Structure formats: structure tokens, C-alpha cells
Amino acid sequence: MRWADLARPQGAALLVALGAALTVGGALVFEHGLGYVPCKLCLTERIPYYLAVPLALASLALPARLARVALGLAALVLLCGAGLGAYHAGAEWGFWPGPTDCGGGTGANPEAVGDFLNQLRTTRVVDCSTAAWRFLGLSLAGWNALIAFALAALAGSAALHRDARPLPNGRGGAPAPPARR
């Protein structure tokens, strides 16, 4: 695959699906492997990726026009995800208040009052306005905003991509490549 092919719908669809899956996978590694408890916004920020992966993969099997529509929808969904990430990062930096009902999930419901009290002692409530981890000055929410925006730009540019080579009748589109002898 050449670099120019990545701007075309099929190459972009593969990159968007792979990028979205790797982003969610990375979040799951932080959560389950490294013990970082996600806040409510962190969990909400994953939803656009959950939608973008099937849209991008579906665009591989659809006709060209529908594939561009699917990639356009993935771009819009990921742009919303970038907005959520920017909102979350802004709340972490104190630019604006975060949601008032933000806290991490606690897992399974306790069956007895004693279990509930033990769970209260060990449960760590996560605040959406506090960054749990930063890399190169950006929190996970900030990185999420950048990744979602980049994937949205890739999907959007591929959705708008049309082959510029005109057909012999002048109507546009891509003619079949000439046969080699």
C-alpha cells in the first residue's frame, strides 16, 4: 500500500478502524492492566470509537458512494469524540467546570450491607476534573481529543475524496487502468 492510497476510502477505512480499535484497547489496558479507574467522561469518550470501528469496516464492503457516506458518518462521530475529549481536558485544566455527577464505576453491586461497607472502603471515586496521568503535558483526555480529531480528519477527507481523473466522456470518475501488454 502506498501513502497516497491512505487518503482513499479503503485505505482510510482500514486506518480509522485500526486507530479506533487501538485507542479503545489502550484505554482498556490503562483500566484493567494498570489499574486506572475511568471517570464517567472517560467512558463516554469511548462511545465514538465503538461506533467508528463498525462504520469504517462496513465502508470496506459497501459500494463507493455508500462507503463515503459511512466514512463521513464515522468522521462526524469521531469529531464529537474530539469535542468530548477537549471538554474533558479543559475541565482537567480548570478552564471550565466538569460535570457535577462525575465519578467512576464501582463494579458489581454488593449483596449485603457488610459487603457494601467493605466496598465503600476500597472504592476510589474518580473526579472528571483531575487528570490521572499525563504524557508530554497532555492528559489521557487531551490525547483522546487529538487522536479522535486526527481520525475524524482522515475519515472526512476520505469521505470527500473523489478520483480526479476524468473519464473519456468528460463526466469525471476513474476509468479502468489501461491493460499492460
Key terms for this structure?
mainly alpha, 5 helices, 2 strands, 60% helix, elongated
SSE topology sketch:
Blueprint: H1 9-33, H2 40-61, H3 64-93, H4 113-122, E1 134-135, E2 138-139, H5 140-160
Antiparallel strand pairs: 1-2
Give a quick rundown of the structure.
By secondary structure, the chain is mostly helical. The protein is 60% helix and 2% strand. It contains five helices and two strands, in the order H-H-H-H-E-E-H.
Describe the 3D structure:
This protein is mainly α and 181 residues long. Helix content is 60%, strand content 2%. The protein has five helices and two strands. The chain has a two-stranded antiparallel ribbon with strand order 1-2. A hairpin with a 2-residue loop joins β1 (134-135) and β2 (138-139). α1 runs antiparallel to α5 (140-160) and α2 runs parallel beside α5 (140-160). 28% of the residues are buried.
Q: Total helix count? A: 5
Quaternary: single chain
**Beta-strand percentage?**
under 5%
| Uncertain regions spanning at least 5 consecutive residues | 164-172
Q: What's the story with the biggest beta sheet?
A: 2 strands, antiparallel
Structural class of the secondary elements?
A: mainly alpha
Number of strands: 2
Described by the principal axes of the CA atoms, the overall outline is: elongated
Q: What's the end-to-end separation, in Å?
A: 23 Å
